[in-house]
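Quick one, T. Sequence first:
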Amino acid sequence: MKSSGRIKLSPRLLACAEYVPENTSLIDVGTDHAYLPVWLVQNNKIKVPAIACDINAGPLNRAKASAAQYEVEDSIEFMLNNGLAGMNGEAAETVVIAGMGGETIAGIIEASGWKWTARHTLILQPMSKIPELCRYIYENGFYIEKERLVRDGKEIYRVMRVKAGRREMPGALELYTGTLDAADPLSLEYLGLLLKKFRRAAAGMEDSERADLKTIDELRGLAAETEALIKELEKHENRKGNI
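Structure tokens:
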């Protein structure tokens, strides 16, 4: 069924779209329904054709159907492909990898074989293993240029814009939190979720027959740092409320 209307993105995908540089060439890895490249084409934000790839035929067929529905199929090239494997690093300036686990995202970047340079931009939205992904980023010649939190349904997600270049590794807690915006009300909520996670993990390990004292101490330390950061942000909120 054809549609002459504009596609609407979920808050998570819209945050990714807003991080895509203007007039860039793009590969959307794991495109699924291709909602993101369809939106970017409709809004004249990128060069065409965009590349939408997926490892499975089913999602790629859904992607083709979305492009046909919104009449942009001539502006998107569809590829059945395992991540970026076999693709030329010159094929796109911007790569989006959203909705996957952090270790999967790191594996896709690692297996690409690309020579990543300043001309490239990575838009990443991990669903899990976020500290592991962040550590990979800084250990392998990338850094997080900017990032934000976004609520989508009941979940809060981190969306990152990553560039090639050497930067100092963030501290242990920042690998979990990212660069927080004190003015963003989601920051406090996100920290609260992390605090519960650290406490729950420490308690669970304490009750285990194979308790790892070093890991328990690390989790307790992260919990204490998170609690202190929450108090700092609460002070900021109180000061703002008194203005």
